[in-house]
UniProtKB/TrEMBL annotation:
Coiled coil: none annotated. Pfam families: DnaJ, HTH_DNAJC9. This is Dnaj-like protein subfamily c member 9-like protein. It comes from Dermatophagoides farinae. GO terms for molecular function: heat shock protein binding.
Amino acid sequence: MDFLQECQEYFGTKNLYEILEISKTANENEIKSAYRKKSLKVHPDRVQAASQKESAKRAFQILTKVHCVLSNDEYRKVYDESGMIITDENSFTDLSTFDEFMNYWRTLFPRIDAKKLDDFEQNYVGSSEEEKDLKNLYVKFEGDLNMIYEYFYFYDEDRVTGMLNKLIDMNEIPAFDSFVNEPKSKKNKRIKRIQKESLSAKKESEKQQNNDGDSDLIMAIQKRNTSKENGFNSLIKNLEAKYATSGSKNKEILLEISNGQSIKEGVMFYKFNESGYKQRWFRLCSNILFVYHTDMNPTNHHHHHGQNRMMKPSFAFLMENFHIHIDSNMPNKFSFYFLAEPDVNYCFFCLNSRQTNEWLELLKQLSYRKQRVYLNQLRLQLKTITGIDPLESTPWSNKS
């Protein structure tokens, strides 16, 4: 699912500023403060119901992604101007497990504990903020208490229904039929579910009391690093299959090409199909477009390490038989697909028109359409000079 669609699903809006409940002009400190306040609301440790744990974890991850975008001047500017979400590997796109999102949170704020959550609950319950949240949920779900239970913090059946009845009497919210005439069977079923999940949460809390998840985080990071290594190995295997060359020799040649003279290199934002944009360093060497994580900028690596500069790209595109599409609605955005896989679209986004035009000009020269035009021009030139069509004089032509 697209990130902004997830924002809509979990927070009821695709507007990142509305999620944090801040203005578009909010400064860095206001963004950080709003993120902390909101993260305490959705923090999974405050959820008692087992059925809500996964939902709370996902909401927490999405909220962290929102902070990643708005706390980065470059990404925030692109979002403000275009509504697009772009990030690099050092922000949320490198956070693949819940523990890694927690680690990001802890770099900004002191590690959360039971006391902090208790303090937050005491300040939140009975506050005007809680009342506002309840009113919004009540209107959003048209009085359906089953849905309100799923999203309301520190849900208590008697307290919540009492608050809603009071708000209805004060004409602050409408008297939805699903609330005022809720079937008794539906209410009893919900209460049984709450009791069951509360007991389950208590047992799980006792089980996990001494588990801080640090070992899981280490394993997740190791697994991610392994997958990055496999990305380049997969590239080698694909090219070996194409050209039937020796594995070790082919790997050496590709590494040499990737670290040799480039036609062009620089940063672009990249995604394929429905994934989110990621910042990458690209090097076009011959007809191979090598891709590096931005913290592995090969130019910097060459500078600092002299001759020992064999950097492994994360992956690469063999620029043969592909078609380029230019987005007329966004001048700095373009994409291409390979004729062998027309359903897979690779999208690119540059921060200025000069960079966009430079990349497009070079890629067009490598594209299938450009090569075909060039070969036809060459064919006509040879025929004009020699009087013979070079394609008609080949051994496989119909003529003798």
